[in-house]
Amino acid sequence: MAWMDYVDSLMTANGVGEVAIVGIGCKSIWAATKNGNFCKITCDQISALLGDIKVLQQNGIQLGDKKYTFVTTDCEQNSAANDWKWITISAKGDLKVSAVIHRTETSLILIEAANTDLKGPSLLEILQRTVNYLLANHI
After folding, report:
1. Counted domains in the chain
2. Structural domain of 103
3. pLDDT in tens, 34-82
């Protein structure tokens, strides 16, 4: 399957507004929802995601044209500064939608809710099915 097929598959879940798959090594967008904010993610923004989690916790993150605040992560307090598998963030501004970023060995998979009804844990559950498939197939 092509990367855009995974984006399209995730977009079929009820309440999902946007999805992107970003390469860690090349720090570029592999596939993203057409005309979405995630299409505008820059190399510097990807680098910031891969940096110190404590900086994200304190400052939030700019992705594309949106600013997000940090909500939670799977990372232990005492673990390495960038040793996380997923983080939950929330958009700042009028529509405070939730988003989840899942880190694999080679990519970041981002998923954002279409509205405030779908929260981080539900997004993570939707995303986890795709991540499990990718890991099981060594992708």
Report:
1. 1
2. 17-136
3. 999 999 999 999 999 998 888 888 999 999 999 999 998 887 554 555 6
